[in-house]
Structure formats: structure tokens, C-alpha cells
Amino acid sequence: MEVITLPHLEQHPLSVCLFRNVQNAAFLRQQLLQANHDFEYAFLDASVLLSRTHVLAACFRAITDVLHARLKSHNVHSEIVFALSPNNNIADSFRRFGISDQSTNILAIKVGGDASQIEAHLMQHVQGTPVLFTDATLQTMRDPARIRKIYRVDVASKEAEAFILGTMALKGS
Amino acid sequence: MPIALGLEGSANKLGVGIIFHPPSTPPSPHDSAHSDDEVPKSQSKPSASSQVQILCNLRHTFVSPPGTGFLPKDTAAHHRRWVVRLVKQAIKQSKIQIEDIDCICFTQGPGMGAPLSAVAIAARMLSQLWDKPLVGVNHCVGHIEMGRTITGADNPVVLYVSGGNTQVIAYSAQRYRIFGEALDIAVGNCLDRFARVINISNDPAPGYNIEQLAKKGGDVLLDLPYAVKGMDVSFSGILARAEEMARRLHAGRKGEQDLWKEGDKVIGEEDLCFTLQETLYAMLVEITERAMAHVGARQVLIVGGVGCNERLQQMMGMMAADRGGSVFATDERFCIDNGIMIAHAGLLQHSMGFRTKLEESSCTQRFRTDEVLINWRD
Amino acid sequence: MSPDSGTPYLPAPFTTSPTPLTLITRGAEAALYKTTFLTPHQPCALKIRPPKPWRHPTLDARLTRQRILAEARALVKCGREGVRVPQVLGMSWEEGWVALEWIAGRTVKDVIWGWRAEGAEKGDAWLRGLLGKVGRAVGLLHSIGVVHGDLTSSNMIVEEQGSTAGEGEIVLIDFGLATQAVQEEDRAVDLYVLERAFGSTHPREEALFGVVLEAYAGSYKGAKATLKRLEDVRMRGRKKSMIG
């Protein structure tokens, strides 16, 4: 697990852990659906994540929207999932970026909290292999066809990240 | 003794002024309504900014009835009718002799053709009669030099706003360069024409009456276009929309359509005037701020008839203060067209050896500010 | 912000952040800070549009929102179409900020002033090369249907490439007045604004502005028609009645 501090949001550290070969996505998803308070995470399906920057941009947007009291969903973690989406449809954003029962590569993010406790909790409940959260790892996990379908951009192009970040930033305008 | 007589008649004001530039006096504290700590105390060429003496500044305005503008022919006739009387009165009031005058300065342009020509003829006549050299002056340069002298603004960005002109100007390499301007009609023209549509008086000036009405508004800001392109602005779209609004207002009053309301508020002329002023002046302040940022200036000088507007001055003042600078504006004696500014700029030109030959003294409706060599400044 | 004009306006979350913000310039519209964004290694140009208290609050909010969005939309479109502009990293139109990719380099204005200050020793040909790049950059922008709205030599950066300053590609910046327009007239006015700004900022180099237009002429299919239209716009500008 890695603790990431976003510049300008130092009071809101992110605990981030990327898992490969997760076996219990259905269980994790169930906890979210039941609103189990022990599972206040953003669980993202890594197959639709382009890069670290892609993820961090969503986190920045979600946290600042919390700070300005303009959440569209119910908490900062669901807001991260929503922030990734190119449109304003919340259910749609969960379907695309949240985990499904079939998800195997999962990125878990928690805003704030005690890092060591979070790490212990994740290791205990996520049945998968923690791997480094890097662009290189994400590249092995991503599904270019799905990403293209969501953002309408060729993942291989060098403009892809700029376009995706821009689209996310413009959302809701 | 450097004394000049200045004649102005580019629009509906006929102005006659007589100025005296005391020879090589050391720079003295100028009499300014505004203080500015940033003005360097040592001025390079004292003739331009040191104290000048206004011996007289007379003006007579041609006022047309409400709902009408001033037409060139009628305006020229007005100037012809008044110019001799005004010159005589000016000489008398100044307590000078004809022989004390060094040159006859006149507005050579820009402006309305017929009134310009009427006054130019008067200037040529005086020049021949008294055997004094003629000095043709650019109207805009007149405003700028007078504004600088009266306010003590050393090197400001100049916003020149009147019925005929909307320009943002900054000095560089002996020219007043136009950084931005109205791409279609002038801001004052926009105000004047709107005043005609809502049928308010042209006395003392349509812009003044719009300003008074606008003070009664302020509850609502209606939606007008906002057209800034770089440092340029465009007003014709705003005028068209404002005219539409005026029609809607009148149709509502006459019962031809529903009374115009925003919420519970019944919209009236005051709201239209308020909206128009807020929009136009925000645009002007914006292009001025752009020019200041562009050239790195902190002072703003507002000249021209629209420059008398208190709301414009207030907005500009807040902007300039925010940039660590200040705004300079003159009162109606100087911001409204006048003869003294022509005398002043003309005398500066004269001091640099400039003369306008009789055969080159014809007027031009289009005389750009940046055509004049400003060789009395560094 | 100028040093003597009080506390600069910063919206949350930048108010309380220990991440350094270095003021680079304070333009008319916005203050530009250099900082980092998303990661400590990502340099960023943070553009903050402070409220303008002299404007009516309704108008002020409307303009701030419009311009931040216009800028971001134009930049995203450019990015997608392969026109080199700063990438949008994040923004908030409510608080009036946009975080952009940091472009290292000098403005075309500074490069030309530098060229003049060095006694033009690099020669006219060098300056012509730079102006040609400017023309092509504007042409490329217009070819994708974006009009900048505020082209000046300060709104273009010569991107640093290695150690040779002034030799890199042109990156257009400051899209706050940008529109996505396909009208010839809009493109022509865009060029006219640049032409006038160039003339007033670089009076001694004004004669070389033709080089910009020549390069522009060859940069996309509709360029010649736009240049023809520019002549009309110029005529209107110069011949327009000064009496209103």
C-alpha cells in the first residue's frame, strides 16, 4: 500500500493499494451495497484506469467538491468513482468504474484515516496480490477497448491522457 | 511669451481656449484632484507637464431636441454662428493683446466633416488676419496632453472615450499607440443612440442623463451581450439588444404585450440604463486593464466626454487600485471637448517647431492618434 | 499580484496549502502561479481568476465561468486535435481556477525584445524563422475551428528545447477569450487583433509581420480566404467613421 499526498490537499492523504488477481470482488461489492462502514473505500476496476494521473485527478476533484459541499453522490469515495466518469450519470459511473463481481484487478482508495489500520484491513479482506500502483502496472491491467468506449479516445495516442483529464475537468459545466 | 489660442469644433461643442505656458519654469507641484505618490518628481521635458495657465476656456454646445442626434449641417451652422462671439469674449476674458498670441491652434480631425471645416475656416481667417502661424491639432492628442497636464499623470495608459472615439492608448517611442479600440461604433455613440430610443433629453448631454437614471436602477442586471476581443470592443450588438429591450418596455407599457417583469420587479428605463452602463463600463475597464498588464503600467488616465461618468471613474479606480496604481480623470471642463486642450497640445507642437501651412490646413474626418509625432516627450 | 497591492486572492484549497505557489505574472484576467499539481513532480501553471469587485457580481460570475470554460474547452479540443497547448489538469469554475500543464520557455514578446536588445545580431532571417512558426501555429489552431480571441506576442510561448532558447515550437496559451468558431470573419478578426497587438508591441519589427501572414497562408486549406477577409476587416478598422 502507498500513502499519496496530493499537492494542495495535504490534510487529505490517500491510502492507495492496487491488487491483482482479486478473488472476492463479489464480497467487496456487497459490502459497498450494504453501506458497511468498515468498507468506506473507493474500489475501482483497474481495467478502465489509464494512469496514476488519471486516478489522482479524480481524487483531487472529489476532495475539492467535498470541501465546497457540492457532492453529487453520498461521500468522498463514491465521488471519486463519479469523478472519473465523462458524464453526469452516477449509476453509469459506478457501472463503468466501480467494481463488478467479475473484477480481478482492483484499486482501493481511502481518503484520510490511519494508514496502518487501513493497510491491515485491506490485506485482511481483499483476497488478491498487492502490486505497485504505477503506470507500468496499470498498463498491464487496462482494457483499451473499454476505455476507448467510455472516453472516445485512442488509449495508445499521446493525447489520450490530456483529453481524458480535460473531459473529467469539464464535467458538469 | 508662449500663448496659444485653440479652436475646437469636431462635434457638437464649439470650444475656444487660450493657454499660457510659462517659459522654462521649474517643475512645480501640480494642482491635481488626485494624489499619486508614484509620479516621478523630476519631469524630463517640463513643457509638457509643468504648470500651465489657462487664461480662458469657453464652450458653447449645440443641443438637439430629445430623440434626435446632432446633424453635421446644423452643427456647423451653430459653430459658424458662435465662433466670432466666443473668440472675442476669450480675448477679453484673458486680458491679453492680440500680439501676445503665438499661434492659432485648431482641431484638424478626427470628427464630423462640416463642423470641423467651419471651425478650420475660422482658424485660417484669424491666422491671416493677425498674421499668426496655424497649428493643426489631432483632437485625441489634445485630450491626452490636457489630461496629463491637469492630472499630473506622467505615463498613463489612456482610455479615450467619447461620442466618436473609443481607444485604449499607451505612449511608446514618440507615438500614442492604439492598443485597443471599438471595432464598430464608439461607446458615447452607443449611449447617445440609446438615449434617443428611450427619448431622454440631450441636455446637458445624453450620457449624463443616462447616468442619472441608472442611479435609480441597480436592483436587477439584465442580460446584454459582452463583446471584448483582445483589447478591442464592439458595441453595436449591445446597442441592438438594448434597443430591443426598450421596445419591449414600451410595448408592455402600452399594453401591446405583457408588462415586463423580472420576478416582482417591473422593469423600467432605470434598469435598462443601469444594465447598459454596467456592461459598457465593465468592458472598457477590462480592455484598459489588459493594456496596463500588457505594457506594465499602473496609471490610467480617462479622457473624452464619457470620461466624466462617475461610475466609470469609480470602476476604473477600483481596478487601478487593485493593480497598485491609480486613476486620473478630469472634470467636465476638460474631459468634454474644449478649446483649451487644442491650444495646449498645439502650443507643445509649436514649441517643437511645428507649423501647419495654409495649404495643408484642410481637415480630415479620420486622423488617427498614432499618426502624430509626439516629439515633446522622450 | 504587484507587491504593494495587498493580499492576493486565493481560493480553497490553495489558501491553506503548504505546497509553494510562486507568482509568475499577474495579467489582466488572472494571476498565474507556478506550483505542482497531482504529484510533487508535475509542474503546473495555476491560473486564478480573482473576482473583480468593480464589476456587477452577476456579470462578474458570468464572465469568470464563461472564460474558464471557454479556455478549458478550447484547450481540450486542441489537445485532442494535436495542436500543442497546455494540458488541462483540473479546474473549478465556481472558485475561478484552472490548473494547466507548465510550459517551459519564453514568450514570443520576450524573445523578440531579447532579439532587439542583442542588437538584432541573430539577423532578420532568424526572426523571420520565428515569425513563420507563429503564423503556422495560428493557422493550425484555425484549421481545427478554434479562434483564440486574444492573440498577442505575450500569449505565445517558444517552448524550451534543451539549451537553445528561442528555437523550440510555439505553444499558444491564454485561451480565456477563445471561441470554437468556423466563421471566416472570426478567424480574420483573430488575425487582425494579432496584427494590431504586434504593431503596438513591436513597432520596430512591424514591417516583418507579413512573414506571419505568409506562413499562415500555407498552413491550411481555408487560410487564403481568411487572409482575403482580413483585408476587409482592416479596411473597416481604418476607414471606420471616427464620429460613430
UniProtKB/TrEMBL annotation, chain A:
<dbReference type="GO" id="GO:0005829">
    <property type="term" value="C:cytosol"/>
</dbReference>
<dbReference type="Pfam" id="PF08617">
    <property type="entry name" value="CGI-121"/>
</dbReference>
<dbReference type="InterPro" id="IPR013926">
    <property type="entry name" value="CGI121/TPRKB"/>
</dbReference>
<dbReference type="InterPro" id="IPR036504">
    <property type="entry name" value="CGI121/TPRKB_sf"/>
</dbReference>
<comment type="function">
    <text>Component of the EKC/KEOPS complex that is required for the formation of a threonylcarbamoyl group on adenosine at position 37 (t(6)A37) in tRNAs that read codons beginning with adenine. The complex is probably involved in the transfer of the threonylcarbamoyl moiety of threonylcarbamoyl-AMP (TC-AMP) to the N6 group of A37. CGI121 acts as an allosteric effector that regulates the t(6)A activity of the complex. The EKC/KEOPS complex also promotes both telomere uncapping and telomere elongation. The complex is required for efficient recruitment of transcriptional coactivators.</text>
</comment>
<dbReference type="GO" id="GO:0000408">
    <property type="term" value="C:EKC/KEOPS complex"/>
</dbReference>
<keyword id="KW-0418">Kinase</keyword>
<dbReference type="GO" id="GO:0005634">
    <property type="term" value="C:nucleus"/>
</dbReference>
<keyword id="KW-0808">Transferase</keyword>
<dbReference type="GO" id="GO:0016301">
    <property type="term" value="F:kinase activity"/>
</dbReference>
<protein>
    <recommendedName>
        <fullName>EKC/KEOPS complex subunit CGI121</fullName>
    </recommendedName>
</protein>
<keyword id="KW-0539">Nucleus</keyword>
<keyword id="KW-0819">tRNA processing</keyword>
<comment type="similarity">
    <text>Belongs to the CGI121/TPRKB family.</text>
</comment>
<dbReference type="GO" id="GO:0002949">
    <property type="term" value="P:tRNA threonylcarbamoyladenosine modification"/>
</dbReference>
UniProtKB/TrEMBL annotation, chain B:
<protein>
    <recommendedName>
        <fullName>N(6)-L-threonylcarbamoyladenine synthase</fullName>
        <ecNumber>2.3.1.234</ecNumber>
    </recommendedName>
</protein>
<feature type="binding site">
    <location>
        <position position="337"/>
    </location>
    <ligand>
        <name>a divalent metal cation</name>
    </ligand>
</feature>
<dbReference type="GO" id="GO:0005634">
    <property type="term" value="C:nucleus"/>
</dbReference>
<dbReference type="GO" id="GO:0000408">
    <property type="term" value="C:EKC/KEOPS complex"/>
</dbReference>
<comment type="similarity">
    <text>Belongs to the KAE1 / TsaD family.</text>
</comment>
<keyword id="KW-0012">Acyltransferase</keyword>
<dbReference type="InterPro" id="IPR000905">
    <property type="entry name" value="Gcp-like_dom"/>
</dbReference>
<feature type="binding site">
    <location>
        <position position="160"/>
    </location>
    <ligand>
        <name>a divalent metal cation</name>
    </ligand>
</feature>
<dbReference type="GO" id="GO:0061711">
    <property type="term" value="F:tRNA N(6)-L-threonylcarbamoyladenine synthase activity"/>
</dbReference>
<keyword id="KW-0963">Cytoplasm</keyword>
<dbReference type="InterPro" id="IPR043129">
    <property type="entry name" value="ATPase_NBD"/>
</dbReference>
<dbReference type="InterPro" id="IPR017861">
    <property type="entry name" value="KAE1/TsaD"/>
</dbReference>
<keyword id="KW-0479">Metal-binding</keyword>
<dbReference type="InterPro" id="IPR034680">
    <property type="entry name" value="Kae1_archaea_euk"/>
</dbReference>
<feature type="binding site">
    <location>
        <position position="139"/>
    </location>
    <ligand>
        <name>a divalent metal cation</name>
    </ligand>
</feature>
TrEMBL record, chain C:
<dbReference type="InterPro" id="IPR008266">
    <property type="entry name" value="Tyr_kinase_AS"/>
</dbReference>
<dbReference type="GO" id="GO:0005634">
    <property type="term" value="C:nucleus"/>
</dbReference>
<keyword id="KW-0418">Kinase</keyword>
<keyword id="KW-0010">Activator</keyword>
<dbReference type="GO" id="GO:0000408">
    <property type="term" value="C:EKC/KEOPS complex"/>
</dbReference>
<dbReference type="GO" id="GO:0016787">
    <property type="term" value="F:hydrolase activity"/>
</dbReference>
<dbReference type="Pfam" id="PF06293">
    <property type="entry name" value="Kdo"/>
</dbReference>
<keyword id="KW-0804">Transcription</keyword>
<keyword id="KW-0819">tRNA processing</keyword>
<keyword id="KW-0963">Cytoplasm</keyword>
<keyword id="KW-0378">Hydrolase</keyword>
<dbReference type="GO" id="GO:0070525">
    <property type="term" value="P:tRNA threonylcarbamoyladenosine metabolic process"/>
</dbReference>
<dbReference type="GO" id="GO:0004674">
    <property type="term" value="F:protein serine/threonine kinase activity"/>
</dbReference>
<keyword id="KW-0158">Chromosome</keyword>
<keyword id="KW-0597">Phosphoprotein</keyword>
